[in-house]
Please model this.
Amino acid sequence: MGLMSHRCSAALMLAACLVANLWAQSSPSQTFPPNSAPASAESPLDHFQNFSAIQTGGPLPGMTEDRFIYRSGNLMRMQGDADLPEYFVTDLAKQQTHSVSSRGCLESPSAYKLSFPFFVTGPAITYERIPIGEATVDGHPCHVEDLIIHNPKNPVVVHFRVSEADDLQGFPIKIENRRDHAYPWVIRYKDVKIGPQDPTLFIFPDKCQTMAGMKKMGSTPKAKIATSPQTK
Model:
């Protein structure tokens, strides 16, 4: 259990550092396309409350492996980028993550990196949507738009381009960074299934070790280890 705890702790601490680094990449001369729509308090990504997909790519170097991701309301489950922990569950509302293994659980006060950009949401954040045009991406006819996100608590303005698949209710199957002077990341989604998810995918123990205390854990409830995205 000690080895698992150290691995979980290292994985979550690394994820937190990576997310912090993501916002720290300042852009001194950022420019935006014209004709932006009025800013809204609602993220277009919040329209997709229930889905599963295979994700590849990410906002930082080295994120090249396929990962299974699932969303049910404010909960996101992510797995496939490491042997331990076996999966992560992030609460988007609480910005809190539980890493779960058959040998234990660890709680972290931050969203896990694979929940980006869905975790970029919250009070006072505003979103500008700028229509770009149409394109075919991975065989899907898409409407393309730029999304510019303003967070009063962070001077860094997030700016990425989203390809929204018309045949998947507008799901963002491709998201690419458009910020000046920043790492040119791209995230792609495939095998997207829109609809309710199996609630057992999001189970984690009531009591977990914390990053600060590393307290002794209780028993871990049985949780389904999924091998592919699925809906009910």
User: Anything to note?
Assistant: DSSP finds one helix and twelve strands in the chain.
